[in-house]
Every structure is written in structure tokens, then in C-alpha cells.
């Protein structure tokens, strides 16, 4: 790495914070920690980290509330820590704008792989093939500001996950993309069996694109999804 990436760990378990801090520091990251939302906001006020690891179960405001608060002002990548069997936690986190989730049975090496994948994606998302604006149908994406402009001229700022997913579709218009390809590209890993995360992200993006009839982002049986539109790149 040319410079140290800063990672913020928000978890009320001192044992977990210390273990992750030691491992990620040894892996070349600058690590800061917080035990709850109040400490988290104090850390964020001093500068935005490169990535946040956010536990769901926290004293005071829980991880869902904090994720929602962060997304009002920032697209920083967020990995949520969830309990082993709480599928609803994973779904809720993604709906609120988290980029990935991992259960607390994870190995440090798995978490490190997830972190590196999201940081690569975040760096790549700074631009899309050198084009400032990407037009499709009557929509326009500002790739630098990460703003989606509706046919009526309204603007919506996209979260990191939504921007990555739309960017992927725009790089491959009118081509089927399997759930595994989508997951590998935006998360750095294959989709797990019965995992709903990709479907939830597609559903959220469809809502932003007012694609209630699924005509813009089509579902292809046994194949995945496809953006059904021609794409024009503008400088």
C-alpha cells in the first residue's frame, strides 16, 4: 500500500476489538476503535476512515441505526458484524446501505479478504473508464459525484454498494450477469447458497431507478440479471 488505510472498528467487545486491531495492524492498516455510537461519531469527526467494521448489537444506538446515520453523509464502505443465525440482520443491514456482512464465526483471514475487496472496489469507483457521465435511457450517472440524475432532473446520491452495482451493469449493458459474477465483482467473493444479499441490492437499485416493472434491470431465469439499455459515455 502506498499509504496506510484507516479502519474503524465499532464493537463493545474489548476482546474482539483488541484481537482485530492486532491482526489488522499487523496486516498494514491503521486501526482505530469505538465501543458505541457516541465514540464512533467522535472518531468520524476527526476524519473519515477508509472502511468501518460495525457490530449490529451495541449499547445505545444499534448498528442498524448507526449505519443509517453514516449513510446520510458518507459512502465509506461498511462491513456489518452479525450473529450466526440472524438472516434478518444481514438483510436489514444491506437495506440500510451496508456494503457487506460477516458473521461472528469469521476467521481473521476471511475478514481481511473482505476488507481488501471492498477497498479495491472503493478505489475503482472513483471513476468509471474515464467517463464523467454515463447516460442510459433518460437517466444519467455522475461517476465522480456518485449522483444519479432522474429523467425529471432530480438528483440522488448513491451509497457505495448501489454505485458499484449500477457501475457494473453500465460496464456490461445488455449482457447477463450471474449472482456469482456480481458478488465477486462488488464484494470480492462468490455468493453463498441461498444468500439474498445480491437480490436485495438489485431490488434497492431498481427502486432508485423507478423500475417497478423490472424492464430496465431484467431478471433472467437461471442466469441472473441484465441491464436492458444502451449506454453512452460522456467526458
From TrEMBL:
GO cellular component: cytosol; protein-DNA complex
Residue intervals of the Response regulatory domain: 6-119
Keyword terms of this UniProt record: DNA-binding, Phosphoprotein, Transcription, Transcription regulation, Two-component regulatory system
GO MF term list: phosphorelay response regulator activity; transcription cis-regulatory region binding
Gene3D superfamilies tied to this protein: 3.40.50.2300, 6.10.250.690, Winged helix-like DNA-binding domain superfamily/Winged helix DNA-binding domain
PROSITE patterns, alphabetized: OMPR_PHOB, RESPONSE_REGULATORY
Biological processes annotated in GO: regulation of DNA-templated transcription
Transmembrane portions of the chain: none
SMART domains in the record: REC, Trans_reg_C
One Pfam family hit: Response_reg
Annotated OmpR/PhoB-type domain residues: 131-229
DNA-binding region in chain numbering: 131-229
Classification via PANTHER family: DNA-BINDING DUAL TRANSCRIPTIONAL REGULATOR OMPR (PTHR48111:SF4), REGULATOR OF RPOS (PTHR48111)
Protein name: Transcriptional regulatory protein OmpR
Amino acid at each position: 500500500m502506498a499509504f496506510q488505510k484507516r479502519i474503524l472498528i465499532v464493537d463493545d467487545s474489548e476482546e474482539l476489538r483488541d484481537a482485530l486491531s492486532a491482526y489488522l495492524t499487523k496486516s498494514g492498516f491503521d486501526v482505530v476503535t469505538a465501543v458505541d455510537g457516541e465514540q464512533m461519531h467522535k472518531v468520524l469527526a476527526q476524519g473519515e476512515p477508509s472502511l468501518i467494521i460495525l457490530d449490529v448489537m451495541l449499547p445505545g444506538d444499534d448498528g442498524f441505526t448507526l449505519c443509517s446515520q453514516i449513510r446520510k453523509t458518507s459512502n465509506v464502505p461498511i462491513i456489518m458484524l452479525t450473529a450466526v443465525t440472524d438472516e434478518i440482520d444481514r438483510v436489514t443491514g444491506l437495506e440500510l446501505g451496508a456494503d457487506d456482512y460477516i458473521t461472528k464465526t469469521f476467521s481473521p483471514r476471511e475478514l481481511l479478504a473482505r476488507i481488501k475487496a471492498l477497498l479495491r472496489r472503493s478505489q475503482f469507483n472513483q471513476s468509471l473508464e474515464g467517463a464523467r457521465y454515463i447516460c442510459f435511457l433518460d437517466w444519467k450517472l455522475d461517476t465522480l459525484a456518485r449522483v444519479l440524475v432522474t429523467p425529471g432532473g432530480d438528483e440522488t446520491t448513491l451509497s457505495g454498494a448501489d454505485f458499484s452495482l449500477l457501475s457494473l451493469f453500465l460496464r456490461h449493458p445488455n449482457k447477463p450477469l450471474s449472482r456469482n459474477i456480481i458478488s465477486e465483482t462488488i464484494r470480492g467473493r462468490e455468493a453463498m447458497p441461498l444468500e439474498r444479499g445480491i437480490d436485495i441490492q438489485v431490488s434497492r437499485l431498481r427502486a432508485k431507478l423507478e423500475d417497478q416493472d423490472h424492464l430496465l434491470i431484467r431478471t433472467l431465469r437461471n442466469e441472473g440479471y441484465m441491464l436492458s439499455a444502451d449506454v453512452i459515455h460522456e467526458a
